[in-house]
Design goal:
alpha/beta
């Protein structure tokens, strides 16, 4: 690759688009830059207004700090405008899309995209989320604890875990009925701790009335579980969080319910059998499910304890999302005023062998949510490529396993989180830095940039083992994984206890759901210092929240990413190599010359020498990561 090509950059930030969130009828200025000495004769902006190809010559708007900037305008006559660039040289034409620069004409898959009238939850790009599994975080009110034998579910009794520091029981031992006593009052009591860590938003796993510890087997969508403190505790928690400048999103499954849900109520364990669909052929709730005349029914993935909801029912649509007092709208309104929803199994919602309603329903559900709170965040569980739902008007983000968690974990040597479910793929090994770059960009480059800024970037969750609990993972490389998470556009999400280096095991789901180790010297943990430092830097420096992103280096097992905005840039370098390496780092591509200090943010010595006017050489030690700031010229 010719060196000047490394400097070519445009994106959807305010540095390169005059208004990243334009309205219909607005004229928007598009910018692109490259090294001042780039051998470019002209730059052409290619777009498709009204379906017809248009090529506009861009003009030089300024030459500054070693870059030449080109500009042209686009008229927003449609809700979605796509574009890319032609860079015309003496003997070649280069084509620049969000994903790459090629010497062949690209298709439109990776075009830059502007959306008009899109309601972006603007606060998300600045956010550091903290995901809490409520039953295991903090016991704020022992009087509401579940007692041993208090009730039975699927034939198994509840177990009260009287020692908070005891490991979570395996499924075979407790069947998700082991209770430590965590509740919403406990979360509220820990708000000062979370603020000190740098957390700005909470994502809570389900809190609605349900028999299990995980609460995905909901009994009633309209009430918070009394063992978590009930509806009043949620109102109090939400108010306290908002008073402290923090946001709150809740988790829900609207694809299926549990068999004990009052709408279904198969066995009458929680409600009289006169209530619900299963035992009452004339019940209105009968239409909510796929129940046959012989009382057989469709279960999600054929699991008979998870009856699937049937959205051919207009009544079900009303009660879930359309009515003003529907499930999704109730909790968005005072006194609860939550700031968004995370949808469980969103990838399979309203999809089965009998109906395919997902594409019809998701826009309507999301519109309903935004009608109550235009700044509400719509987060969907999806583990793979879901670009079709990330084009504005439906989801704001997936749980970003595909472009973050799955990628960085495999870079550190784990099998892919999803592929390992198949026996033949469990040996899938470590990927290279070039693989990481390609996987990040194949996800992001299909999306409008305003959606990049919504991404929910995570490493761990309630559905994965904790990366730091894997004895095969180098803990120095784990530091790099956490830094990587904070370098991607969007929000970073910390799973409760990761900062405390919480214990766990990696061979079952219960291993990532241990109680928060409050008796530990958490502030003495290296991970606490790492996460706290990164979270506060993100809050203090727009480069890490609203800045551009550029991958500077991706060769072998060394990756470098830059975030830059106005007069500063932050650079990370992450190595999973077994030996020290010397790399060429093109800091000039983001307008920088050298690091601001001799050591990085965490005190690690930087061995850097000037290589040429656009780059430095840097010694990168085996398995090490670096995170440093540069001034932009």
């Amino acid at each position: 690759m010719e060196t000047w090509l490394e400097s070519v950059h445009s994106d959807g930030t305010a540095a390169f688009v005059s208004n990243p969130s334009p309205q219909i009828g607005e004229t928007v200025t598009i910018r692109i830059r490259m090294y001042e000495d780039a051998p470019v004769k002209c730059v052409i902006l290619r777009s498709m207004p009204n379906g017809m190809e248009r090529l506009d010559d861009m003009h030089i708007s300024k030459i500054e700090n070693g870059f030449v900037y080109y500009e042209a305008t686009l008229f927003m006559n449609e809700k979605r405008i796509q574009y890319h660039f032609y860079l015309v040289c003496e003997n070649a034409v280069y084509f620049y899309t969000q994903r790459e620069i090629t010497t062949y004409l690209p298709d439109h898959t990776y075009d830059f995209v502007l959306l008009s009238d899109y309601q972006q939850p603007d606060w998300v790009k600045d956010a550091v989320f903290y995901q809490i599994f409520p039953e295991r975080f903090c016991n704020g009110d022992p009087s509401n604890d579940v007692r041993s034998g208090e009730y039975r579910q699927n034939g198994y009794p509840t177990i009260q875990m009287r020692d908070w520091n005891q490991p979570a029981l395996r499924y075979e031992q407790a069947h998700c009925l082991d209770f430590f006593g965590g509740d919403l009052q406990g979360i509220q009591q820990k708000i000062p701790y979370l603020k000190e860590l740098g957390i700005t938003a909470l994502y809570l796993n389900p809190i609605f009335y349900a028999p299990s510890s995980h609460k995905y087997d909901c009994l009633d969508y309209f009430h918070v579980d009394p063992h978590f403190g009930g509806d009043e505790a949620l109102a109090a928690l939400s108010a306290a969080l908002h008073e402290n400048g923090m946001k709150l999103i809740l988790d829900i499954s609207i694809n299926h319910t549990g068999i004990a849900h009052k709408w279904f109520n198969r066995d009458g364990d929680w409600f009289d059998k006169k209530v619900g669909a299963y035992n009452n052929p004339d019940a209105v709730e009968r239409k909510y499910y796929f129940i046959e005349e012989d009382n057989s029914y469709h279960g999600w993935f054929n699991v008979d304890t998870m009856p699937t909801l049937n959205y051919t029912s207009e009544e079900l649509r009303d009660i879930i999302y359309r009515n003003e007092d529907s499930v999704l709208k109730k909790w968005l309104k005072p006194p609860y005023s939550i700031d968004g929803w995370r949808f469980d199994v969103a990838d399979t919602f309203a999809r089965n062998d009998r109906i395919q309603l997902a594409d019809e329903l998701w826009p309507r559900i999301c519109e309903s949510i935004k009608s109550v709170n235009p700044q509400a965040y719509i987060l969907a569980e999806h583990w793979g490529d879901c670009a079709a739902y990330l084009q504005g008007g439906t989801w704001d983000s997936p749980m970003n396993y595909y472009g973050c968690g799955r990628v960085i974990r495999q870079f550190l040597g784990e099998p892919d989180l999803f592929m390992q479910k198949h026996p033949a793929l469990r040996s899938t090994g470590k990927i290279t830095a070039q693989d990481v770059k390609n996987r990040i960009l194949q996800h992001l480059a299909k999306l409008p940039y305003v959606i990049w800024e919504n991404q929910f970037n995570l490493i761990d969750s309630h559905d994965t083992s904790r990366l730091h609990n894997n004895p095969k993972v180098n803990l120095e490389e784990y530091r790099g994984a956490v830094i990587f998470q904070f370098m991607l556009p969007g929000a970073a999400s910390i799973y409760y206890g990761d900062e405390a280096e919480i214990d766990g095991y990696i061979d079952s789901m219960e291993g990532c759901r241990f109680p928060m180790p409050w008796e530990k010297d958490i502030e003495g943990c290296q991970s606490y210092h790492l996460i706290k430092t990164l979270a506060h830097l993100k809050a203090q420096h727009p480069a890490l929240s609203r800045g551009s992103m550029k991958i500077l280096y991706a060769e072998g097992n060394i990756l470098s990413i830059a975030r830059f905005w106005e007069q500063e840039a932050f650079i990370c370098v992450i190595s999973t190599e077994d030996e020290n390496r010397v790399i060429r780092l093109p800091l000039g591509a983001v307008g920088a010359v050298s690091p601001c200090e001799d050591c990085d943010v965490f005190g690690r010595l930087l061995t850097v020498t000037q290589s040429d006017e656009h780059s430095v050489t840097m010694e990168v030690k085996a398995h090490q990561s670096y995170f440093f700031r540069c001034d932009i010229m």
